[in-house]
Design brief:
The protein folds into 2 domains: about 140 residues, 60s Ribosomal Protein L30, Chain: A; about 160 residues, Phosphoribosyl-aminoimidazole Synthetase, Chain A, domain 2. The strands form 2 sheets. The chain has a 6-stranded mixed sheet, with helices on both faces. The chain has a 5-stranded mixed sheet with strand order 1-2-5-3-4, covered by helices on one side. It is globular and about 60 Å long. Helix content is about 35%, strand content about 25%. It has about 325 residues and is α+β, with helices and mostly antiparallel strands. The structure holds adenosine-5'-diphosphate and magnesium ion (MG). The site of magnesium ion has 6 residues, from helix 2 and strand 7.
Length: about 325
Amino acid sequence: MNEFEIIKTYFYPLAKKFPGALSLLDDAALLDIDPDHQMVITNDILTAGVHFFENDPADLVARKSIRVNLSDLAAMGAEPLVYLLALSLPNTVDDAWLELFSNGLKRDQINYGISLIGGDTSSTPGPTSISITMLGRIRVNKALKKSNAKLGDDIWVSGNIGDAGVALKIIKGEVNVIDDKSKNYLFKRLHLPEPRLELGNNLIEIANSATDISDGLANDLNNICQASGFGAVVQGDSIPISELVSTLIKQTKHLKMSHIISGGDDYELVFTAPPEYTKNINTLSKKMGLKISKIGSIVEGKTIRIIDKIGHDLPLETEGYQHF
Ligand code: ADP
Ligand code: MG
């Protein structure tokens, strides 16, 4: 069974009577807190050996743990408030690691105006594991969901896709080492994703559906399509990639656009909006100084197609990372 079958078989039955659980299919859950607001709640685990390497700098691991959770709130359009931190630490952990780790948390607490409010700490015979539960807030009935894409919506994506995936390929030795400046850019994109909170917030009155890209553009767009009951056609040429990744694709025989689309960890937002919002989105993009690219549209059907200039399908690996 893969991750999603496990959730559907064993955990969905426990959540199906609670509407705010959104069938365990969305980026976060919704809980009514007062007549005007809902709490938006998400949890993400980062495990050494799966999501990061045990000897990665502890401050970067801390900050990524916070940021992947913030990214889920951004995808719902929510404003972050506080978080809980559950740590499983090998008994080899030392003060230097904890000092660096807590400094990383502190830095991003300041960056994002959030505070730690609780958690749990345990030893483990296994690898380091960091679980963060992030709580945020949104005005009632305003949360952006995966399940609300409409037929004919344009599909948009923020920033560039593929930088983090390529960084991982460099670490694994699958893409050749390049100059330090380029490497730093790509590693920063992998270690310090920028949760698109401002964008998410601005999309509340614009987008019909949204999610963050944590599992590759193809997989996360596919989740929107599945949840909304539609298909998608994406123009491969309009998928935004950095100049650097574009050059690397040309230079590296086994690095293809399909890897860029299927690789994860971008933490950009992919969202859908009616075509009449094009101008608003372009204005928003300018105002924020953030690239937002129109890449395709929502169509009848159940599959997503990524096509080249002459309408041929690009190969897709919609599997994403397989935990099991
Ligand atoms: P994301 O990539 O946005 O962090 P995940 O792929 O981790 O989301 O999870 C997909 C959905 O399944 C989310 O709605 C999440 O809350 C839910 N989920 C994952 N694991 C569990 C679990 N053990 N129990 C209940 N819900 C879960
Ligand atoms: Mg998500």
